[in-house]
Structures
1.
Amino acid sequence: MKYNPNEIDAKWQKYWAENQTFAAKNNSEKPKHYVLDMFPYPSGAGLHVGHPLGYIASDVYSRFKRHQGFNVLHPMGYDSFGLPAEQYAIQTGQRPEDTTRVNIDGGVDKEGKQIAGYRKQLDKIGFSFDWSREVRTSNPDYYKHTQWIFIQLFNSWYCRKQGKAFDISELVTVFEESGNALVEAVCDDNVVIFTAEEWNSYSEDQKEKILLQYRLTYLAETEVNWCPGLGTVLANDEIVNGVSERGGFPVIRKKMTQWSMRISAYAERLLQGLNDIDWSESIKESQRNWIGKSVGALVTFNVKNHNEVIEVFTTRPDTIFGVTFMTLAPEHDLVAKITTPEQKEAVEAYIEKTSKRSERERMADVKTISGVFTGAYAEHPFTKEAIPVWIGDYVLAGYGTGAVMAVPCGDERDYAFANFFKGHPEASGGMPPIKNIFANVDISEAAYGSKDNVEITASDFLNGLNYKDAKSKAIYKLEEIGQGKGKTNYRLRDAVFSRQRYWGEPFPVYYVNGLPKMIDAQHLPIILPEVEKYLPTEDGLPPLGNAAVWAWDTKQNKVVNTDLVDNVSIFALELNTMPGWAGSSWYWMRYMDAHNENEFASKEALAYWESVDLYIGGSEHATGHLLYSRFWNKFLKDKGFAPTEEPFKKLINQGMILGTSALVYRVSGTNKYVSKNLIGNYETEALHIDVNMVNAADEIDVERLKRWQPQFEDGEFILDNGKFIVGREVEKMSKRWYNVVNPDDICNEYGADTLRLYEMFLGPLEQTKPWSTGGITGVFGFLKKLWRLYFDDNGLIVNNDEPTKDNLKSLHKTIKKVAEDIENFSFNTSVSQFMICVNELSSQNCHSRAILEPLTILVSPYAPHIAEELWSQLGHATSISEVAFPIFEEKHLVETNKEYPVSFNGKMRFTIELPLDLTKEQIEEIVMKDERTQKQLDGRTPNKVIIVPGKIINLVG
């Protein structure tokens, strides 16, 4: 009976689907375990062999936990809103919902392309997903709840004193009773203090404007990354080298009225929460750096000849007397107000130039020195000296106050800036000599950035103090004169939540007198309308501005025709949509109760599953999705919905599987191609070709290559001994490099279990490793060898023989190793152990049921299809998926005998197996009586017999 993986795969995938084998229960006597993958965006390109790596790892772990007796929730869904679908819609005229559906379910799109479909590809690999809980963020029954969460955020404020969010109605009550003077809230910086009497006298619109300064999601004019080519705002991680990651369009900084999320309110909790979760230190450090906690002082500098002040946050108030100049971000509100007429042209030109650089680019570029003097001067708070005010793009408007007090003697970047512009014509007298305030420190060559061994000098009342004492005293004196105060600052900024796109969650918002109003939750979802064009309108409005039916009727409580807007009972709806991260910031909770129509999840389901026990996904989400998810979870915890503070207990970042590209070498300026080994004789250029045309020996069929693309059709090919050899290069797997390997092809040729085992065998889960299809045959061979332990050509050969000691030793070594490896996520070494075990059992000619049944269970998490088939052939009527994992017994690994090398004068002549509990005397007696010893001695008596029990036997003389 031969191993036929295609038949076996199809049989068991059908069985699992029909029997809902992996459906988790929301109430079970078993302990729960929640295993989650970062859910994918379903692109039309489908999966390549690099994509399933994390999914296979999580599946191995999920199956293992079921064998251990856990009720496992292992769901899958799709992050199906996003810019790629919208761009494809613009290019092809297809509706994003149609292309998204085809990308997931498979089929033929409008352009006639055959799309495999994510769902079918995932099923083909044999994952134990609970498909009954599938979610798609672009389905109205899902984003109804995303809209509801947005409303909760809008109707909440954050109390600093209690460190949590509360309903906005509670804040209104405080305002009505005592005003806002004593309110400790996270809010806008420019809040005006008012009394209860003043609040109660305000109009409703005035009150709403004030409340927007406190709400956790709010409208504000914000600096954003605007991409004219895409007609939308982009997040920092969607920009590469100053252009959009998608399409390569230029990006500029621009002020726009946007919805924002007050994630900054949760900065400290996000920071402290990292201490309570089992994540890699590198991911935690990325989040710590992004949150960027700094303890220092907020210092106020008056601007000379203007009724304006510059606020600066500094971690080094001890250096206040070393301030040589000040720098504002080019976007800072004060720039236009304080720039002198003489400097106006230069300043405006510089602002125009820097608007084309993204924040990320500006932060990363530490080499370029650029700036312009505004012509204005600030006043030192203590000495009253004039301090020149510059603008420079190394200062960011959204970080801190958008201004720095430059102390060149203590900061390398300030030092470089001061030296670059000292005496420079553009400085126009605006760059004084560098002040040195550190005693016994030479700053002629470089700044002194250390806080250690600092003694302050040339600093009035700070003279002679160290860093710590000078910092405290400087803050005290600033507070005393009313020009500063101690402050903790965070780099983390509020997240812009608006996108000028079509394919995203609609906001449940309409506008009355320009102020936002929330649609009541009972009328959700507000469903995305159909539009003819997915581009912005001719007058620059977002794509929803093209919608004919997009206004809110407050009497009928429904969406109506846009031309009915009368601003009396029918109002304009929000034209922006939510960003891609909205739906992914809470999806793990929806999986807990995916079909609940009234709530995003019931309290009972949330209480049972609590949080994700294991989360697997890419490290690229460290400061995006993972940070936003933690924020939303903490907010929902505050409001009594989420049961835990943190959503993901343990996080593992899988590495990347790289492609092994194939290259042919064209002689420069010709259509002539040479085999790799001959390129030293020519001047050549390398061209990528389809890796699937190349065999394991790096040979390509030239005739096939000629048919692949027209450029090769008339090419001349110079062979090497009758063969054309290609070059190889390891790089990211991408259609661009023609190095994509389709997992469907591997499954069709070798079966899903071979793919699963091979991906786990490639190397440690968290490391990046190259793909080589050539190595897959070895894993396929292993599965065939495993099969032969159970079957020969005539059928099942498993017997009821008593297992031997060696059989049991091989089995229990494997039980111990596999259990430990899965718990430690060392999947590659488990596969090695399987191979060792099968080789040993084969050489032992073992066909004992007592050994092969538990071996089947051990293999099941990795190769579930063959395991199910073997289990069934062994006579079991139910799935192997929840059969108890074999128990390791130490006694089978305890050695009772030892094979001793027997040496004569230090040379080993033979071996002898003896019990380990024998004494030296007993060992000597047995060895001396052995006929092989007698033959070696040939009648002589040894001078000495050296015996080390358990190690050596040596006869001397």
Note: The mean pLDDT is 94.
2.
Amino acid sequence: MKIGIRRAAILGLVIVSVSSFPLWVSSLSIGDLPALAQVQPIADLMEIALRERAEVVLIDGSEKSGRIVEMNQQTFFLGLGSRREEISWNQVDSVKFKGDGIIVSPVGEFKIRGKGGPRIRLRNVPQQALGDSPEGNLVIDLREIPGISEDEIGEFYKLRNKFQYVVDIIQYDLHQNRMVVELTGYEKKDE
């Protein structure tokens, strides 16, 4: 098996190729090479923009709103003005998003506007399918969702090249420890 590594200097990313199949890894150093078995093909990971404002309904009926600024499998941080509040997923009934979609990258924030296109509803998304996203984007590991075939993952990959997806709703089922995630696609424009 041939492994090649090259660094994309502008974004500080490392591109790893295993037998000509590109994988995306950030912050990889040569000392990390034994961990390559854990690296996933980029097609398995779906990075999704969040909208400017999140309306969070907790299972006790109370509501909070703000901007989700970081999330992982167990919690997310809601920006409330100048402070941040950590909220555990097991306290959440639903999160509805409003406003423009925001994609956060190492080079800045970009608003996503325009007429929405294709909608996707991901069902049975387990908590472990959520990837760490310190920038406030949603990252879903498609291989962790039961019932999604290789062909469907390939279709998501094709759509991701044409559309930037933005989260509309996350409905959390505490008893099943699963989520339903509804997305809208916005056509990417050539720059």
Note: The first strand starts at residue 3 and ends at 8.
3.
Amino acid sequence: MPQGVFDIFINTQALLYGADKQLLLPSMWLVGQHTRQYQLIAEEPCWVFTIRLKPFALLPFPQFNALEIKNTIQSITRNFGGSGLASQIVESLSENKQQTADIRLAVCTHLAQTWLIEKVLSKANFTVPTIFRAESNFILRNKGDIQVQALCDNFSLSKVTIRKHFLAHCGLLSKEMSQIWRLNHFLMLEHSGKLPSMTHSAIAAGFYDQAHLIREFKGILDCTPKVFFKDRSFDAATITQIAKRFGGSYSPVIQAD
């Protein structure tokens, strides 16, 4: 589910990605910004340990072009000693079966945090671009219910300059980022069940009407909102994390199996 973030994940078994079923062997992978939902298919039981990168929307690796990796997954085992971390995590998750899942995940979290601090942040020569962070946070604070012109007015910048900032640091247009986070806000509202109808949730999230919601929903998630919630195959934990991100209480390290 697109959430306007970059992820790194390590898989213990082969996965198939996308419509062309790209083979992802056990390794470390960088997930670029996605504008549509994608699937990872495992043909046998598989652990997937995921690190969600913060600050949100920002690619912290100058070795990669944010626009070029849009809607792709790239191997990074050769970057920052990634092969060593991948091997350690695969071993911890696959071989230490005498330990509980919680213990194994705690070990992996420690390994990942140490790697990020010692191998990535200290050597990547990375600085947060202040103006882009302010622009993306402006969209996040408004939960995607914002027009490009409002960004321009708030920062006294042209549409061309805003476009350059987002494509360089994020790989998405500001409009695409707004669409993703507006849809995330709708998912959060509808899942909460606090509003009387789906239409009320759509309007509260910033959609003009139900037709506007359905058009953008199908464009990103490839189904209608009713089918999405009726199917009940969605990841409720992911929607819970949306609320945490909007509330500023999100933890950047996620563990999943």
Note: The beta strands are 7-11, 15-17, 22-24, 28-31, 40-42, 48-52, 73-75, 253-256.
4.
Amino acid sequence: MRKIGTTAAVLVTAGAWLAGTAGIAGAATGPADQAVSATACQASWNSNTKSAEDATTKSLRNVTTGKHTCYDRMVFDVRGTTSKIGYHVGYVTKFRQNGTGDEIRVKGGAILEIVVNSPSYNPSNPAQKTYAGEPGKSLPGVDVTGYKTFRDTKFGTSFEGQTQVGLGLRAKLPFRVQQSGDKLIVDVAHAK
């Protein structure tokens, strides 16, 4: 009888531990993190322009987005790079294509211009695209419908080793830029 009680206590403890870790894992991925408190969402981010001058010879391969409890995320996949990825991210009143200066309309209350120091073509053969973005068009495979902060995406260009994207937002909100492995990540907060 004593062994059964001890075994039951171990199973209850293990179950509680697993439930707790499942909640932590969910917080990193999105849907399960709905229970995070508002105070956990307060970040020390700001809306100032952010940049890093580093450059990589690796090409941009993909752009994806994700919804999180406190922010919306855009990820630039520069597959295979082992160096720092340079960038320039800041708010603009009009999104203008690098090289031509042509205005590209982006929906939303504010526009975040993101320039990644990585081409969306093969540097050895510029005619060979590595990312299918088309100037003035929405980013391929990216749908921001239902996002709390993101409203629109537009590809600007890939010019002189840099790729330019316009991100339409609900309002001018704090953001951060960080690198994780071969990915450049732009997170935009849901609130100020």
Note: The helical segments are 2-29, 38-41.
